[in-house]
Design goal:
Blueprint: E1 14-16, H1 21-33, E2 38-41, E3 55-58, E4 65-68, E5 73-77, H2 82-90, H3 106-112, H4 119-122, E6 129-135, E7 141-144, H5 149-154, E8 163-170, E9 176-185, H6 189-200, E10 207-215, E11 230-238, H7 242-253, E12 258-261, E13 264-267, E14 284-291, H8 296-305, E15 310-316, E16 338-345, H9 353-362, E17 366-368, H10 383-387, H11 392-405
Helix pairs in contact: 8-9
The structure holds flavin-adenine dinucleotide.
Length: 421
């Protein structure tokens, strides 16, 4: 079983590799009879709290994928990766609301929130789920649709309510975008971020951008101009013509001289290349903060709390992300204007001081965080941390549902919701 995450690993008594939803249900019933905890592994990108003993369900062999071009609905099983869906959808002139990484599982991504490259235009991908097939802690396979109490609770809570064996997901008729990345030397981080924040305040909802700060390792497989270099990148995805795109990004291009600029019209199927994320497995821990605003003071606080040992990803929210979706997904803080993610190398189960420092620095602007962007550092995973993923009303509703559907907290190898008493 391969995992993208190498610093943390599940430690189960038994690994099950089901080929069908019925086999998943049988594994869950088996674990329930023995009162064992259950974990789920797809690709390991979002490994949160490792399973200690019990049964690990590896979804890698649940590879079914069917696209109905007339209804624009894809039925996607739990082992399918985002890149596979991107390629298959493109054959029909369609696209999923995919995110920066083509190698995450589609379902793992949706169970976070699904913050995609076109998020400001179309909202969270979780809000485009039309049906869920879920094996709950009692071993029952249920088909859920919007309006069912458990439907929205599953989306946004990263595995707290059972094993999702398949989803039905709405696709969009998107074939091409104008996008790519402007990369500047990190010495220009302040003027580039200043220019981006000013530009973002009036940017149309049809453009979704993010800023990334990182130091590339000195590796041969990287282009020479990036090797060992600290950079700030502005990533852009826009639905419009090249001329409209060029006009739109002109103030960003003018922020400082670029190291590289690959903005162009591209097939949407290539959009997974925009962020240039490392494809090799590695060890990391991460936190995030949904900010009510990202002003000059928040920027200064973030830059002071981060450095060459951290990777920073700041995504502009707003636009369609403000709308509560039809799915009732448990994705809160929709009024947040930016989401800051910070990732750092990790090598043990303890707290990660670099992440604690970022959380404290951004506290004055923070509304809460998203569970789907909390990786590793299981020592920090207490109930307060899970609660901070939701408003108090949402958390109480989720805790009541957890008490009803998973009273023994069998699915606790994640940022766990505690069943209400
Ligand atoms: C490099 C990188 C880029 C990313 N970019 C984005 C992005 O642009 N937008 C975004 O929204 N997210 C993004 N993410 C977050 C990612 O979508 C989540 O971490 C997601 O949970 C990964 O799912 P996975 O199944 O691939 O990983 P895994 O580590 O295998 O699973 C993560 C967790 O999801 C749960 N889970 C997975 N599959 C199932 C299932 N079938 N049933 C029940 N529970 C399940 C489990 O609890 C598991 O612990 C990114 C993550 C990384 C590492």
């Amino acid at each position: 079983m391969e995992s993208f995450q190498t610093a943390y690993a599940h430690n189960p008594d038994l690994i099950v590799e089901p080929r069908t939803a019925e086999e998943v249900a049988a594994a869950v019933r088996n674990a329930a009879e023995r009162d064992l905890p259950i974990g789920v592994h797809a690709t390991g990108h979002g490994l949160s709290v490792p399973l200690d003993g019990g049964v690990l369900i590896d979804t890698g062999h649940l590879n079914g994928l069917h696209i109905d071009p007339d209804t624009r609905i894809a039925r996607v099983e739990a082992g399918v990766r985002a890149g596979t869906l991107l390629t298959a959808a493109a054959e029909h002139g369609l696209a999923p609301l995919s995110g920066s990484s083509p190698s995450v599982s589609v379902i793992g991504y949706l169970l976070g929130s699904g913050l995609g490259l076109l998020a400001r235009h179309y909202g969270y991908a979780a809000d485009r789920v039309r049906a869920l097939e879920l094996v709950t802690a009692d071993g029952e396979l249920r088909r859920l649709v919007p309006g069912d109490a458990l439907f929205g609770a599953v989306l946004g809570t990263v595995g707290n309510f059972g094993v999702v064996t398949a989803v039905e997901l709405e696709l969009l008729p998107v074939t091409e975008i104008y996008g790519g990345q402007l990369v500047f030397d990190a010495a220009n981080a302040e003027p580039v971020l200043d220019a981006w924040r000013a530009w973002a305040a009036t940017a149309p909802d049809t453009v979704t951008t993010s800023a990334g700060l990182l130091t590339y390792p000195d590796l041969e497989q990287l282009p020479p101009f990036l090797r060992g270099r600290s950079v700030v990148g502005l990533r852009i995805a826009f639905e419009g013509t090249a001329a409209e795109g060029e006009r739109l990004v002109a103030p960003l291009r003018a922020a400082a001289s670029t190291i590289t600029d690959d903005l162009r019209i591209m097939p949407y199927a290539e959009s997974g290349s925009i962020h240039r994320e490392p494809p090799e497995p590695h060890g990391y821990a991460a936190t995030n903060a949904a900010l009510r605003r990202f002003d000059a003071a928040a920027q200064r606080a973030l830059l002071a709390a981060t450095g060459p040992d951290t990777v920073v990803d700041i995504r502009q929210l707003g636009g369609a992300l403000r709308e509560p979706g039809k799915s009732g997904a448990a994705v809160d803080f929709r009024e947040a204007e930016f989401l800051v993610r910070v990732i750092t190398a990790a090598d043990g189960p303890g707290r990660v001081p670099a992440l604690d420092a970022v959380r404290s620095a951004l506290a004055p602007w923070t509304l809460g965080h998203q569970l789907g962007f909390l990786y590793g550092a299981p020592a920090a995973a207490d109930e307060a941390q899970t609660r901070a993923g939701f408003t108090p009303e949402t958390y109480d509703r989720l805790a009541a549902l957890k008490a009803e559907y998973d009273p023994a907290a069998r699915f606790r190898a994640t940022r766990a919701i505690v069943p209400a008493r």
